[in-house]
Amino acid sequence: MAMTESSVHPALWPAPYATGAVEATVTVPGSKSVTNRALVLAALAAEPGWLRRPLRSRDSLLMAEALRALGVGIEETVSSSSTVAGSHDGEGEAWRVIPAGLHGPATIDVGNAGTVMRFLPPVAALADGAVRFDGDPRSYERPLNGVIDALRVLGARIDDDGRGSLPMTVFGSGALDGGPVEIDASSSSQFVSALLLSAPRFNQGVEVRHIGGTLPSMPHIRMTVDMLRAVGAQVDEPETGGEPNVWRVSPSALLGRDLTVEPDLSNAQPFLAAALITGGRVTIPDWPERTTQPGDALRRIFTEMGGSCELTESGLTFTGTGRIHGIDVDLGEVGELTPGIAAVAALADSPSTLRGVAHLRLHETDRLAALTKEINELGGDVTETEDGLHIRPRPLHGGVFHTYHDHRMATAGSIIGLAVEGVQIENVATTAKTLPDFPRMWAGMLGA
After folding, report:
1. What's the CA gap between 120 and 126, in Å, rounded?
2. Which of 37, 104, 113, 260 is in the most buried spot, having the most CB atoms within 10 Å?
3. Whole-number Å distance between alpha carbons of 289 and 21
4. Rounded CA separation 321/348 (Å)
5. Backbone phi, then psi, for 249, in 5-degree steps?
6. Are the CB atoms for 403 and 9 separated by under 8 Å?
7. Which of helix, strand or coil describes residue 71?
8. What DSSP element (H or E) covers 407?
9. DSSP string across 356-393
10. Which residues pair with 93 in a beta bridge?
């Protein structure tokens, strides 16, 4: 996919340059993946539930507003223990989700949030009335055919003018038959999660059979299954002895639960990278001992690249030596970590090969093309492969690092800026998609 840049550039943000080893404790906001799955499950439950320490970001607020448009009540409260008035870190915040009869007509703005554009069409099929989906221009380019085709097989009526993408309208009838369906989810594991999340409300539940190539981001499907079980759903899956590439969810009522959202471990990546690059030490409080979040793989990957970590009751402490080693790694299950790993690899003492991430060409932007172009324009030597990147370290220099409205591109450029003077991030505000107040947090980590 050709890389294009907007003719109107938001203000450039000078990426802070680290003059010494970083020593910091960084509290990371809640997980977007957990927050948005929890919102969907709570909206479909048979009783009210609570979501504590949710992520308040563009993607999660789009999900909440979309559910409100369908009739769900979501009441937001902030306890007196919240640290800073107007803080966006979710501390002390709780959302009470009150299920109601889902209905249209409604218009849902998905922004460029994959979870909203893919998780909510099955919910809309359960509503009574027409629900139109629209979003940012980039959202029109992201594939939705896996969800659209599957919902039609399961009994839904959808008008997408044959595009297999946005904009589209789901004509809900208040119920959906469900049953068996085959899909190719090799371009996005969200196709599977989307069907599973709403399946307990389908008349026959669902049997999802993946018939395509390798499924990317399997930890996200495991997260979906774990969260379904936590609210009372019955799920058969390959991980627990079921048929390979087949998931079955039985029809049932869902419980309203009281859930505290884990920190977003993928959003901890730039801060851990700071310790690795500067030979410093960064602690992320409340890092879970067990999790399905893909970001947990950073403990292994960044250790292999030259650091060390210790997980205690208080959180994860990562320590760097200031030396960074190249890595040959398959990131197919944890593709969202690729931009940050590529940024670190560009500063390493040996080449790296990042594999298994061809599906990143269909994310917020074509991340493989974007990383190649932006790192090379800073003097790097990155080559796209069929399913990833080959990165040969070279001395880098300052310059503008474009983000293409992609939050993980912005944090990747910031990582490079720690070690390379004069890097400027175009549209750093795009980090608000999942990591509100990133510039403030980044400066705070550096003691500014």
Report:
1. 10
2. 113
3. 27
4. 12
5. -125, 125
6. no
7. coil
8. helix 407-419
9. S-GGGGGSSS-HHHHHHHHHHHTT-EEEE-SSSEEEE-
10. 78
**E strand or H helix at 401, and its extent?**
strand 399-401
The strand ranges marked E within 326-388 are 328-330, 352-355, 381-384
19 burial via Cβ count (<10 Å: 0-12, 13-18, 19+): exposed
- Cα 57 to chain centroid distance, Å, stands at 12
Q: Among this protein's residues, is 5 annotated catalytic?
A: no
Q: Share the mean pLDDT of the chain.
A: 93
Which pLDDT band holds residue 36 (cuts at 50, 70, 90)?
Answer: very high
CA gap 296, 290 in Å, rounded:
9
Closest C-alpha to 43, from 264, 257, 235, 191: 257
**In Å, what is the CA distance from 67 to each residue of 100, 124, 149, 166, 347?**
10, 9, 23, 18, 43
Instruction: List the end-to-end C-alpha distance of the chain, in Å, as a whole number.
Output: 39
Q: Which run of H or of E encompasses 282?
A: strand 281-285
- Radius of gyration for the alpha carbons in the chain, expressed in angstroms and rounded: 21
Element (H, E) at 414: helix 407-419
Check whether 10 has a pLDDT greater than 70: no
pTM: 0.87
Q: Is the peptide bond before 167 cis (omega within 30 degrees of 0)?
A: yes
Catalytic residue among 93, 207, 336, 364: 336
Residues in the chain: 448
Phi, psi of 94, rounded to the nearest 5 degrees: -145, 145
State the residue for tokens 């977003």.
264
Nearest to 416 by CA among 365, 356, 351, 344: 344
CB 266 within 8 A of CB 295: yes
pLDDT at 83: 35
Query: For residues 177 and 154, what is the distance between their CA atoms, to the nearest angstrom?
Result: 6
C-alpha atoms less than 13 angstroms from C-alpha of 177 in its C-beta half-sphere: 11
